[in-house]
Amino acid sequence: MEQGALAAAISPDLITVHPAERDRYSQDMSFVNPVRPASVVRPKTAADIQRIVKFANQTGTPLVPVSSGPPHFRGDTVPSVGGAVIVDVSGMKKILLVDRKRRVAMCEPGVTFAELIPEVEKVGLRLNMPLLPRSSKSVVGSLLEREPVIMPKYQWDISDPLACAEIFFGTGDEFRTGQAAGPGSIAEQWAVGAVQKAPYGPGTASLHRLIQGAQGTMGIVTWVSMRCEILPSLEEPFVIGSSQLDALLQMAYWLIRLRSVNECFILNNTNLAAIFAKERPPRFQSLKASLPTWTLFYAVAGYEYLPEERVSSHMKDITEIAQRLGLEAEKAVGEVSAHEILKAVQRPSSNPYWKLRPSGACQDTFYLTLREKLAVQIDAMNVLAEKAGYPASQMGVYIQPVVQGTSYHCEYNLFYDPQNRRELNRVKELSTLAVRELMAKGAFFSRPYGESKGMILNRDAATLSTLSKLKKIFDPNNVMNPGKVCF
Amino acid sequence: MALSKDIYSAFEDVVGPEYICNDPVIMPSYHGTEFAAIVLPKDTAEVQAIVKLCNKYKLPFRPVCTGWTGKFSKGTLYLDLRRMNRIIEINETNMYAVVEPYVISAQLQAELMKRGLHLNVKGAGSNCSAMLRGHGHLDQTTSGDDRNHLAIEWVTPAGDIVRSGSLGSSDEWFCGDGPGPSLRSILTSAVPPGVTPGVFTKAALKIYHWPGPSRFPVEGISPKYYLSEIPPNFMARYFSFPSVEKMWEAEIKIGESEIAFELMGFNVAMVAANITTSNEEEEQTFQRLSKEVQGPGFFIILAGNSAADFAYKKRVLEQIIGEAGGRSLASVEDPRTEGILLCQCIRISASIRETFRPGGAFSSIPVMGQRDLTIQWAIGAGQAKEPLIEKGLIVDDGGAFFGWGVEQGHLGKTEIFCKYDPQNPEAKKAVEDWHNAQSARAFQERYFALLAGPNEEIGRGLSNYHLWWNKIQQALDPNGVSAGAGALV
Amino acid sequence: MGLEQYKGDMEMCCRCSACKWIPMQRVSGYRYAHVCPSISKYNFHSYSGGGRLNIGAAMLKQGFNYTDRLLDIIYNCQMCGACGVSCNYAMDMEVLEPIQEFRIKCVEDGKTHPALDQVIAGLRKHGSEVPPTGKRGDWALGLHLKDATKEKVDVLYHAGCLISYDKNMQKLAKATVKILQKAGVEFGIAGDAETCSGGRAYQMGYQEDFLNQAQKNMALIKQSGAKTVVTGCADGYQAFKVLYDKFKLKGNLEVLHISEYIDRLTKEGRLKPQKKVDLLVTYHDPCRLGRLGEPWIPWAGKKVPGDRFVFDPPKTYRRGTHGVYQPPRDVLKSIPGVKLTEMTRIKEYAWCCGAGGGVDASNPDFAQWTARERIDEAESTGAEALVTTCCWCEKTFHQAIAETGSRLKVYDIVELVETAIT
Fold this sequence. Notes:
The complex is a heterotrimer. By secondary structure, chain A is α+β, with helices and mostly antiparallel strands. Chain A has two domains: 136 residues, Uridine Diphospho-n-acetylenolpyruvylglucosamine Reductase, domain 3; 207 residues, FAD-linked oxidases, C-terminal domain (Vanillyl-alcohol Oxidase, Chain A, domain 3). Helices cover 33% and strands 20% of the residues of chain A. In chain A, a hairpin with a 2-residue loop joins strand 15 and strand 16. In chain A, helix 9 packs across helix 10 and helix 13 runs antiparallel to helix 14. By secondary structure, chain B is α+β, with helices and mostly antiparallel strands. Chain B folds into four domains: 79 residues, 2-Layer Sandwich (Uridine Diphospho-n-acetylenolpyruvylglucosamine Reductase, domain 2); 123 residues, 2-Layer Sandwich (Uridine Diphospho-n-acetylenolpyruvylglucosamine Reductase, domain 3); 136 residues, 2-Layer Sandwich (Alpha-Beta Plaits); 87 residues. In chain B, the strands form seven sheets. Chain B has a five-stranded antiparallel β-sheet with strand order 5-6-12-8-9. In chain B, strand 14 and strand 15 form a beta hairpin. By secondary structure, chain C is of the alpha/beta class. Chain C has a domain of 153 residues: Rossmann fold, CATH 3.40.50. Chain C has 18 helices and eleven strands. In chain C, helix 3 crosses helix 6, helix 9 crosses helix 18 and helix 13 packs across helix 14. The longest helix of chain C has 18 residues. The chains are: A alpha+beta, B alpha+beta, C alpha/beta. Chains in contact: A-B, B-C. Chains A and B meet through strand 9, helix 6, helix 7, helix 11 and helix 15 of A and strand 9, helix 5, strand 11, strand 13 and helix 6 of B.
């Protein structure tokens, strides 16, 4: 790539070719092959982005969009091919709209959870968060990656809480999805009282769904809007600990089916300890030892009207369900209180990132599945881990009911010491083996990252073929993050 | 447009002679269109074979479920999906149901109610396909539009079978998205202005908790059905408000406090239509109810998961209504009327009495999205109906519009229609003019755009969505056989 | 006027497909939700109530094009009226009337079905819808009943063609006689002079033949002095009560179905079913006793110009609301030991037995297909027996049971009452 040509396309101030900078983007904490980008650009405006995409089309330059700050974990921001330009939009930090009445917020891709949360809270709103994202995680990035959120009750559709998005497709054309598409500019829409909330359309297509899960292969997003929930006036968190995962899953099922609770997820003792142990061993080990194998966490909330009455009526119903299942809700498990969990999960992770605390590095394997398949899959993963020489007891497990209980995000967090080559190789090998084995047991890897993506995508040739047709329309020159997903 | 003997016999080979017909005498019952033929495939394999033949012979086709409405081009092959009518699965553990296109909502709902579950019944009525994309009375708690679909089995316009999401990868229906980007971006089913080309042969739908009885205690003989009792922890009321603003305020508070099972922004004309059994009775009831209400209003159903939950919801409702100056319509408090409305709204989704009964036709502008914004527009559209009412060209409904909150008020739906006699050319013309003028105003004033057909100006005003959609269609349907346009309920 | 008078009604059809289903709020599951045998069997929309109206409306405009397919559509319909009931839950429009007129027009235009022509030839020759075997009054030989053609009677029992001639059905007439005698009813029969009510001829579209029969019957009744006619079959009931009234022939004649009469006699204390009949039964509402048995409502008027499909004077639609549903059920309840369990499709939205509209003659396979569906539904209730109040239903069900090997028993209600009183 001609460096001068890029500089001619956009302001040279936005471009970095310094080797150290390029190296920062050449690898991440995943096991993908390191590839050094040719340069890094840091656009400030949508116009900058459009110019970059047009330039890429003219020159055949691969672009790799990045919205979150480091560390990255999934390999999606590491170029797959040489000569790529990293388009780092993490500096685009405008919060464009927070509207209490319409329960919507809108921000640029550089805005992190830590930055957006206080702004929405000011007007009495909250975000439906992923579980403890790292502090550098972009809100837009999380939404585009279809990360699971911790309040399944409010996730009506897997695309939630994303509402609308503005994108420059791989062609360089600007497009706004859903209600934001028009008529009129965003300013004109605001003038008439419109916000960018309804996700579907315009017309038959709902293209926000194409952008999500695409890992930047369709274009570069310049802002998104998202639905927000009401900030409760009263919250009562609970935990139920058990060695019987199935009982907890049944409990979670009813809590979500009856829409009794907001936050609702299950963690194993390793993960719960990883989140709350501020120091590495021995604190981590003693905390973990105090915890049951599995902990179901949920919170009941009250809003503007009669919050105490709402909470108490829900608690009464919940108690009946728990009794039926032989479970008992408590305010703490081991040394961790339900209140602590609630406060923690309503914010991004404190630093260092909780997944890095136990051993310094973490490899995640996650998929969607049915409730009744979880037990078999977790058993299989335990066996695989032990076989690979990774103690299953060290593995974190996070189970998140998603989309109002229609499926379950299951995530294995393999903590390891990145300096220990043997351990690293063991985890690498295990994570590849796990994908194959878990797929055979019904796991659906809806968000394929890294080395295993081929194995995942090859199972569904018909979908692959259709996606390829769409890719050719929106990024005909394959300049957008080539080599990712199936493109 | 007659099919040649050879081509006809090719399709006959697929479905058998019993399930294909091109006799002109049946065409009046198929939307009065001269179709090339009507075929009745029984399963996905037959659909695929038909679509492949359509590609071979460059013959446009359209799949149709119950076929309530639709506009079609002459010479199209009509795939009547009537025989594809199986409930494939009701997965209570993971809250979804899988159906073929000709399972109607009433059937699926009845099966779900037995299991303490229910679904979003589209506004077109429970007599229409359960797998449609659309909106309905129950949107407050069962979502709407394209948001209830999970995995879909789709015969593409080229005749390939695509099974989206988890279905394609792991043969399960729970997720329609991925691996990677979601095909639900284009698999959004069948409402105006466009439809996904090809044929949806099976779809998984989200289902929801039903706090009511396994079946309603319906008594009486048609059309005078009533409930022998209001089910425990259920209540239906109609509240009117001093102004639209107050109504909206109450509606949004109800959404936020998550107390309504259904919130349907009926106007009193629609209440009158639903609780009466003839046109004459409806007219009289409308006049009577109009005098009883103080302004615009909505119908609400509360349903508690328990007595405590129900009591809480009732108290919150009372407070919100009080703050907004709402007034309960006494007629609806009568348990007999209350029960009728419960059934009309939950089991029937109301539509026929309030739309077709008066004059035989209605012309509607439905808008999905942001409720407060579309209400602002609808006030003007309602006022524009008044001269037509005065001239006796459309049925007097007080110039009203209606609508409701979706997903506890996160999203919304507003709709306004004119009911008229389609045999009266003057009325037809006046209604068309009203429709066009109000659609144009919505676009010009930046409220929303109606996408009733290919329209360059509207397309340009909406991120050129039409150009992208055309490209998608061309990519999926290289032979141009999947005919567009028209609704398919 | 014929079909033309229903032009507006036919144009009102909005193609909602309600006519294919039982009323939506009565749908209680996936199974037994359909109500129209014709669309259920033949699938093309043209075979539904709405489809028939769409075709009728179009042909009024464009002319009548009698293809084989059209005649197949026309004659593969039991004229059971279920489509109209489901439609009229919500809509104000006639449904079965235009379908009936369409069929009458076919007959008038000579577009008949050969099997039905044969039935009508027999009717013209013998005054019977079924081929005669012996004399019509043979079933009453030795019973010493009053001959209404020779002496005045208050109550005339009209047995009907099938009961009179079919050896397997004559038991119903004999049971009826026993019941009426037990209750001390003074009644007579017309014996060999009895003639068909003409109801089935009307369903088949042969209006002239129907009227001919109606006139004969009313002349006989007038001569007999009968004030009340009691019918043994639902077709006869509907003919005497509804159709004769429609054509202004009925006058003040009281028409009772035997089940209504038994119910009345029981409630008056004149009949006391005392013998226990241990049987779990389900009850099949015959179309012409049930939804189509509701009284005729005379009306003449014009559409009011304007936005609504309303008339001056206002029109009251027959929506199936006032059919005969409860009396047979009350009779069953009055029999000690009989337990009634209901099917899904009952009363105004009952599924037809399959025999109506001449389908038993024109397309016996379709009639049997329809009956099998009902047998299946009856079996799903767990009942031991299917009770009906029409000999045509009973005959069709017996055939279906013989074919399927079902263990379900089929009775006419008079058979159970007879057992309970002897």
